[in-house]
Fold:
Amino acid sequence: MRWLSRFLGILSMAVVARLLTPEDFGIIAVTTALIGLMDAFTDLGADTALIRHPNPQPSHYNTVWTFTVITHSVSALLIAVCGYFSSLLYPDPRYQQVLYVMALSMLIAGLTNIGIADFRRHLQYHKDFQLNVAVQVIAIATTIACAFWLRSYWALVFGGLSRSLGRVALSYALHPYRPRLCLTERRQMFGFSFWIMLRAVAIFLTNKADRLVLAAYYKPALLGLYAIAGELASLAVFELLHPIGRVLLPALATKQNDRPWLENNFKKMCNISATLATASGVGLAAVATPALTLLYGQPYAAAADYLVLLALLATLEGFSQPIGQYLLLLNRARAYALLYIFEGIATLSVVYLLATQQFDLQYVLYGRLAVSALAFLRLFYLLRMFKSVGPLTICASWIRPMVAGAALYFGVSHLQRLLPEMPVGLLLPVLIACGALIFSFVLLLMWLLMRRPAGIEQELLQRLGLYHPQSS
Structure:
């Protein structure tokens, strides 16, 4: 579902990017960052709270839906107010009208049928697939049509509005549940949701809030390149790991009473996530220039330096995914939220200090990367909660993908210097193929040298019938 959806998204962006300019994307980058902040405040972890509940009743669904409607309504009002006063913060008047339309989109999104949480709760991913892919198709069709018609940033705005309308309509068409206004279970549901919301806000401060600050000091065209690089980095890593995260929590919930099994398999989860994050994130960093040129056009190749650093940031985030899911399963949402608070506040502070001194955006990203590297060390503090899994065990599961990732980056970078005249349409597939071979070879070699520990290598070889641990 995620890859089909994003593949369609890449195709649409390849078309839209050639009809619009980096400046258009810069306008949208700032306004969507503000929307992201409001989304964070409205992220009550509705799906997670219902999935974790052993036996949710209609009152639980109705309470979560009512909270969602209220928070989205308040957020829509705040976005409209921000639009009214945007001229005081930013010199460009175009932000105001865009924010008004996005406020309407936020209001509509709050009406989505909470019954679709059952798709994940009961592992009905075919219905989840139908909903999300259909919504994506609606948004893409609207965006492309408006891009050909308007040739401006309004194509992206109307595409977002159609996404909200389509999601609400399809949520009621695909699920028979009809929510009602109710707050009877507010104490039980909101106690968990508060920390989910706080975590979402902290993650936003780390990943998206910098655009709100940078808009006051840098031109929209430069922010457009920055935003394009950020979206591509998120696509490469997040969209690969997100399906695992969506399945991991409800699947682990079936084993939540089997603590020995969870702890014995935790290091395998860490290895698999780290391997996928490294292969996608480091691989994208190694082919940043040809990827941007082929997907979006030559004007966007100037974002290559940004993409390298943003891809590394996304890779670091991918390492922490299993820890977060495990903490949510163990009802440690508070600890999970606090993990991000320091990183979010520190990131925003560093970005503000560097922006006010008019540093280049690349140095701003160096600051973000330094903060994320320090925050990454806090993961080991959380590992104290797992009695049978220590930091050294987790580090051992990360060594193989990290070594393979380093070999991938340096190998592909060197190969790219040897082929300077090759057309980008041929160069990118060659680099991707060679990178995959380098990464796979080094990963397998490290696995053999480390005496075949449990991990993604064992899982893949077993599924291919090439490895039988019982007879080894």
Summary: Residues 411 and 417 are 10 Å apart (CA to CA). The first helix runs from residue 2 to 19. The mean pLDDT is 82. The two ends are 37 Å apart (CA to CA).
